[in-house]
């Protein structure tokens, strides 16, 4: 059975919201559009089931943008590219101290040892699917990640910056102190959000990420 064709919805006079069938389609379409964007494309903003295409309508009218998106849909879907990327040397490596407060309990819940859970997290090549929740908070996915991790029944009122967590099929790291309900397995000192950098977020959609256990 063929998947539904993405819907294109005008979002004001300078953006089009593309509604996709799921995250795989969003990632494939994001890759296709970002490969060679025409002059006038301002930003591509992926989410779990949508992709917002922001344009400068004076340089790239919405009608032209819609035609460009439809051509990309025909080229990119239904063949969905793997989420792992091609070149390991391009991977962003983030060092993690895997002594998170939820590591032992989560491993027990999943039926593995804490060491096995850490080893699987390190061995997985993750990809930033989209940004959400807070500036710089990337939702990372992987085709071969086997676990569906339940969120905490009661969210913490304070999660420290750099905390690395798991929730559902996602991994992520908190760029700053905030409340949160993800299961915390470690912490990183990486600068996840720097408003003075370009781009300010270390984790940007499409980036391939590898975690590495920090030496004691």
From TrEMBL:
Keywords: ATP-binding, Hydrolase, Nucleotide-binding, Transferase. InterPro entries: CT_C_D, Cyclophilin-like_dom_sf, PxpB. The keyword Transmembrane does not apply. The keyword Hydrolase applies. Residues 6-203 form the Carboxyltransferase domain. It holds the Pfam family CT_C_D. It comes from the Bacteria. This is Carboxyltransferase domain-containing protein. SUPFAM superfamilies: Cyclophilin-like, PH0987 N-terminal domain-like. It comes from Agromyces kandeliae. GO terms for molecular function: ATP binding; hydrolase activity; transferase activity.
